[in-house]
Fold this sequence. Notes:
Keywords: CBS domain. This is CBS domain-containing protein. It comes from Ornithinibacillus halophilus. Pfam families: CBS. This protein is α+β, with helices and mostly antiparallel strands. It has a single domain (about 5-135), classed as CBS-domain (Roll), CATH 3.10.580. It has helices spanning about 20-30, 50-60, 90-100, 115-120, 125-135, and strands at about 15, 35-40, 45-50, 100-105, 110-115. The strands form two sheets. A three-stranded mixed β-sheet has the order 1-2-3. The chain has a two-stranded antiparallel ribbon with strand order 4-5. Strand 4 (about 100-105) and strand 5 form a beta hairpin. Helix 3 packs parallel to helix 5 (about 125-135). The longest helix has 11 residues, at about 20-30. The chain is globular. The N and C termini lie far apart (about 40 Å).
Amino acid sequence: MNQQLSNFMSSNVQTVKDSQSVQEAAALMSEYNIGSLPVVNESGQMVGIITDRDITLRTTAQGENAQTPVSQVMTAQQIVHATPNMDAHQAAQLMAQQQIRRLPVVENGQIVGMVALGDLAVDNQLDNEAEEALSSISTPSAPQK
């Protein structure tokens, strides 16, 4: 079986523009029942990611307005991502190392997919990697500011 991420990722990925408000981002997350959105600029290049946790800690907890632009609360530096041809085992290890549950899949700067830990866990050959990743992800870390 081919173990490339392209075989595991969801390719119908919802995104949000960096100029949209956190309220719009939260509404998209609610509508699609997802916890993160890749952030793109006007030309469709991925420039960040915003999570429901980002909205809670960087907007609500800081007393920011719901109309705050996504660009002010997204994670923009050191965005962890994969490529469609990356090996799924490597992706699981990357997710464990970075303590993330969702991994954007990017090709030529454009978001082409998203893979979640659960996507990898359903494959029997990746069961152990997914379990190890979840264990690493669940290890407490210091909060980011």
